[in-house]
Structures are given as C-alpha cells and as structure tokens.
Amino acid sequence: MGQHSGIGVLDKALAVLHSVAESPCGLAELCDRTGLPRATAHRLAAGLETHRLLGRDTEGRWQIGPAVSELAARGDDPLRAAGAAVLPRLREITGESVQLYRREGNERVCVAALEPPAGLRDTVPVGARLPMTAGSGAKVLLAYADAAVQQEVLMAAKFTGRTLSDVRRRGWAQSVAEREPGVASVSAPVRDQRGTVVAAISVSGPIDRMGPRPGARWAADLLAAAGAVSERL
C-alpha cells in the first residue's frame, strides 16, 4: 500500500484513495487493488465518500470526489493557477479532455484537468497518479528528466529512448492506445522562467475523434497552450 505513516487507518484510507485515483472501481476491484478485507475497504470508501473525497460515477463505481480538487485549489501552486487560466481555452479549441501533469519520481500526477461537456471523454481526475511508462504526457516529462530516471523507466516503458529523442527534437509527443485502449493523446512541455521543464500539458480523447496521428492535428495548439502556461509561470 505504498508508504506507511505508522497510523494504520490513515495508511489504509490513503491506499483506497490512491487505488480509486488510478481509475473508477467497485468494491471487489478495490479489495483486489488494496489487499484490504471487503468490510474494511467498504467502510473506508464509504467514509471517504461522506467527506466527498470519493464520489460515484454513473455505473456506481467509486471515483475521486470533488473535495480533492477543492482542497488542492486552496494551495498556492503557481502551476495550477497558470493551468486554470489556459486549460479552458484549450478545451474549447479541441473539444477534448485537457490535463496538466507534474512528475513526482517515477509517476506523473494530474494537477489540473477539464472535460468536454458532452460525449465520450478520457477522464483523468485531479490527483490521479499515472505511470511514466506509457502515454504522451509520460513521454514529455521523461524526455527532459535526468538520465538515471530515464534508464530506470525505459526498462518497463512502452516506448524507447529513440522516442524520447524525437520528443526533444520536435517539442511534443503523441500516443495512440498506449496508456488505455481506445484513447489517443498529445502533450507538450511546460517550462519555468529558467527554461526547465516542470510539467506536461495534454489533450486526450477517443481515437475515433483524435485520429491515428493526433499530433498532426493538435500539436500546434498544444505548443501554443504550453507557451501560455510557461509565460504565466
């Protein structure tokens, strides 16, 4: 269940939160992911739901609740603030889901996200932790990470070091059915005032709409949005 604080119930509750953040799930799958007994997993998830840290999707599965993003929004995070100013316009242009990711170790964390108002969408909740081994956002963040991190992640990645070289050369990355079947995405790097890559901004959606070469369609808009976020930093 990851790191342990020595406070058993807290560690278990966080294990539930992190598991649901990966993707919505029901009780049986939650037990499989966390290793918790059925009664314990249900009690913790129900308690987190009461506090709006978890919610339910249309199929009755638990998903990350609104209180998570509400709490995160209260923090003084320049990256999140910059994303809040830019992501709405990017969603309007593309009509797809948009996200902002930050790398934490060998994971990427969604720090901001917006979804289209209707239709199929790629839902990534704020706070979700995704692996660095697949997806255009992972490629962008890893392409500018140090060599040791790259070597460690590439051992299990669905892409190669050549892919990362291509990302650095052209300034954006794309993926098709790499992180999740049926989903395509495009991402570009966000830089701070020193030019260091601190985040990846992404557009994602069904392959049927994004197409087999999503970069050809949306890379220019992604680069413009990444530049706008960078300027605000």
How would you state the average pLDDT, rounded? Answer: 90
Overall 3D shape: globular
Number of helices: 10
Order of helices and strands: HHHEEHHEEEHHHEEEHH
Q: How much helicity do the residues have? A: 40-55%
What is the CA-based Rg, rounded?
A: 18 Å
Largest sheet: 6 strands, antiparallel
Key features?
6-stranded antiparallel sheet, alpha+beta, 233 residues, two-stranded antiparallel ribbon, 8 strands, Beta-Lactamase, globular, single chain, Arc Repressor Mutant, subunit A, 2 domains
In short:
It comes from Mycolicibacter minnesotensis. Helix content is 47%, strand content 21%. The chain is of the alpha+beta class.
Mind explaining what this structure looks like?
One of its GO terms (biological process) is negative regulation of DNA-templated transcription. Keywords: DNA-binding, Transcription, Transcription regulation. It comes from Mycolicibacter minnesotensis. InterPro entries: GAF-like_dom_sf, HTH_MetabolicPath_Reg, Tscrpt_reg_IclR_C, Tscrpt_reg_IclR_N, WH-like_DNA-bd_sf, WH_DNA-bd_sf. GO terms for molecular function: DNA binding; DNA-binding transcription factor activity. The structure is a single chain. This protein has two domains: 8-67, Arc Repressor Mutant, subunit A, CATH 1.10.10.10; 75-232, GAF domain (Beta-Lactamase, 2-Layer Sandwich). Strands 5-4-3-8-7-6 form a six-stranded antiparallel sheet, sandwiched between helices. Strands 1-2 form a two-stranded antiparallel ribbon. The mean pLDDT is 90. It has helices at residues 8-22, 27-34, 38-50, 66-73, 78-94, 136-143, 147-154, 161-170, 207-210, 214-232, and strands at 54-56, 62-64, 97-104, 107-114, 129-131, 173-176, 183-191, 197-206. The protein is globular, with a radius of gyration of 18 Å. With 233 residues, the chain is of the alpha+beta class. β7 and β8 (197-206) form a beta hairpin. It is built from ten helices and eight strands.
